[in-house]
Amino acid sequence: MISTGLPLNSTFIHLPGIGRHRERALWKKDILDWNRFLEAATNGILSPATYRNAVTGVRESLWAVERRDVSFFTASLPECELWRLYPEFGDDTLFLDIETTGIGTENNNVTLIGTFSNGSLSLFVAGVNLSDFPCHIAKYPIVVTFNGSQFDLPFLRTHFPEAQLDKAHIDLRYILASLGYKGGLKAVERAIGLHREPLVRGITGQDAPKLWQQYPVGDDAALEILALYNLTDVVQLVQLLRFAIREKARKLKFPGQMVMADDQESLQSCTEYLSEWLAKHRSRESSLETLRRLAVGSNLHYS
Questions:
Q1: Cα dihedral sign for 199, 205, 206, 211?
Q2: Read out DSSP for 62-110?
Q3: pLDDT for 50 beyond 70
Q4: How far is CA 233 from its chain centroid?
Q5: According to DSSP H, which parts of 138-269 are helical?
Q6: What b-and-e string marks burial along 181-192, b requiring 16 or more CB atoms within 10 Å of the CB?
Q7: Predicted local confidence at residue 300, as pLDDT
Q8: Structural domain boundaries of the chain?
Q9: Could you tell me the end-to-end alpha-carbon distance of the chain, in angstroms, rounded to an integer?
């Protein structure tokens, strides 16, 4: 349990016969977690006729957490409530952002994938180590994106058919929109006061394909800027999810103890990671020429 928000064991809306109204009613009765729920059911405080199936669901929920079974909650929680998983399953969550050669999945390709999990960034680049991505994502049962339902995941399903993508998906675009923060990623960041490094502050998603095109023809800096832009997107997703969870819990008026964490905790520096990544891959032939040759030879379609 690593982040800020409503404890998962205070969630009841995944149980049979319980919606938001009954969940709040339970909280008002000081039934703030699953163990208190079972005590109240045993002591007759809760109607057996009303909550019999929910009692079974609570016992199954406790067992699911013990065995770290995210799929149990993915199947029972409404999709718009999957954000509730993160405070309990933060270590099992992968933040994800991709760059491509264009918008359409059929005529374009994935060029970069940036991820963040367990305090560490990872970068996968076409022609270098992009083929490692399916093994990487297979480790995580929860994926967080911004607009990934419309962009990232369709691209990944098309170009990585072997990848395990049937996961709990927290799409921040829709969660933040439900809180009144609508628009693209950069607009939402500005609205809640997040900032970017000057080097990538003015770059948009429309610039990403252009930067990739510049790289194979000799512009080494283009790859570095594109990678820094991608990694920055990923780190911002972490901040945005933490913000969204706090706001969601506040609107729910949960009366119990919140799970708290420092928003700056465990956020790896994008520039430091990128420097390490470049040094690692440069060391193979001591220059970016290797990467450029691999990118040119990866049969990517440039648009």
A1: positive
A2: HHHHHTT-HHHHHHHS-GGGGGGGHHHHGGGEEEEEEEESSS-TTT--E
A3: yes
A4: 11
A5: 152-159, 172-178, 185-192, 198-201, 207-214, 220-252
A6: beeebbebbeee
A7: 45
A8: 8-79, 87-296
A9: 43
Look at residue 197 and tell me whether its pLDDT is greater than 90: no
User: Which one is predicted more confidently, 60 or 299?
Assistant: 60
- pLDDT tens digits, residue range 152-177? 999 999 999 999 999 999 999 999 99
Q: Return d(Cα 125, Cα 140) in angstroms, integer.
A: 20
Two tokens, residue 25: 């009613």
Q: What are phi and psi of 116, to 5 degrees?
A: -140, 130
Strand order in the sheet with 168-171: 120-125, 110-117, 93-100, 142-145, 168-171
Cβ-contact 200, 161 below 8 angstroms: no
Residues 87-296, CATH architecture: 2-Layer Sandwich (3.30)
- CA separation for the pair 5, 40 (Å, rounded): 24
Q: Report the alpha-carbon angle 137-148-231, nearest 5.
A: 65
Give the pair of three-digit tokens for residue 33: 């977690």
Q: What is the pTM of this model?
A: 0.89
Taking only the tens place, the pLDDT of each residue in 171-189 is: 999 999 999 999 999 999 9
Which tens digits make up the pLDDT trace of 236-248?
999 999 999 989 9
Residues near 134 by Cβ (< 8 Å), separated by ≥ 6? 160, 162, 163, 164
